[in-house]
C-alpha cells in the first residue's frame, strides 16, 4: 500500500502544505482524475488549509471531488463552499458507489 501511495504522489498531481518544514496537510488525485485523499492534521484543522489545497490543486484543471458519505464534516463544508457544485439529477444528489480493490 505504501508503494501505491508513493507512486500516486510521484505520477499524479498532488498538494502538500508544510509549516516549519513539517507536513501539516496533503491532497492527492485519484487515477480517474477525481480529487481524494485530503488530510489535514488535527491541530491544523479549521484554518482553511483544505480550501487552499483544493484551489491550488484545481489551478488550470476542471475537477471532480469524491467524499465518503460517512465523512459528514467534509460533505457539509463542501456543500457550503463557493468552489464546489453538488452534482444533481432530477433534483436529487448524485451518489457514486465507488470501490478500489487491491491485491
Structure description:
- It comes from Heligmosomoides polygyrus (Parasitic roundworm).
- Belongs to the glycine N-acyltransferase family.
- The protein is an alpha+beta fold and 103 residues long.
- The protein has one domain (2-93): Aminopeptidase.
- 28% of the residues lie in helices and 26% in strands.
- The protein is built from three helices and six strands.
- It has helices at 2-11, 49-58, 72-80, and strands at 14-19, 22-29, 34-40, 64-65, 88-89, 92-93.
- The strands form two sheets. Strands 1-2-3-4 form a four-stranded mixed beta sheet, sandwiched between helices. It has a two-stranded antiparallel sheet with strand order 5-6.
Identify the notable features of this structure and list them briefly.
alpha+beta; four-stranded mixed sheet; 103 residues; two-stranded antiparallel sheet; 3 helices; Aminopeptidase; 26% strand
Summary, kept brief:
This protein has 103 residues and is of the alpha+beta class.
- Number of folding domains? 1
Overall helicity: 25-40%
CATH topology: Aminopeptidase
CATH architecture: 3-Layer(aba) Sandwich
Described by strand count, sense and barrel closure, the largest sheet is:
4 strands, mixed
Low-confidence stretches: none
Q: What letter string, H or E per element, gives the SSE order?
A: HEEEHEHEE
CATH class (first level) name: Alpha Beta
Question: How many helix segments?
Answer: 3
Radius of gyration: 14 Å
Number of strands: 6
**Strand order across the largest sheet:** 1-2-3-4
What do we call the CATH homologous superfamily? Answer: Gcn5-related N-acetyltransferase (GNAT)
Average of per-residue pLDDT values: 81
Look at the helices and sheets and give the structural class: alpha+beta
The global form is globular
Approximately what portion of the residues adopt beta-strand conformation?
25-35%
How far apart, in Å, are the first and last alpha carbons? 10 Å
Protein name: Glycine N-acyltransferase-like protein
InterPro entries: Acyl_CoA_acyltransferase, Glycine_N-acyltransferase
EC number: 2.3.1.-
GO cellular component, one term: mitochondrion
Amino acid at each position: 500500500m505504501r508503494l501505491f501511495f508513493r507512486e500516486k504522489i510521484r505520477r499524479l498531481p498532488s498538494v502538500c502544505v508544510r509549516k516549519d518544514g513539517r507536513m501539516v496537510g496533503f491532497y492527492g488525485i485519484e487515477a480517474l482524475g477525481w480529487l481524494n485523499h485530503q488530510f489535514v492534521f488535527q491541530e491544523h484543522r479549521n484554518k482553511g488549509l483544505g480550501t487552499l489545497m483544493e484551489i491550488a490543486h484545481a489551478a488550470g484543471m476542471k475537477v471532480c471531488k469524491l467524499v465518503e458519505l460517512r465523512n459528514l464534516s467534509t460533505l457539509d463544508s463542501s456543500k457550503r463552499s463557493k468552489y464546489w457544485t453538488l452534482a444533481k439529477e432530477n433534483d436529487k444528489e448524485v451518489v457514486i458507489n465507488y470501490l478500489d480493490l487491491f491485491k
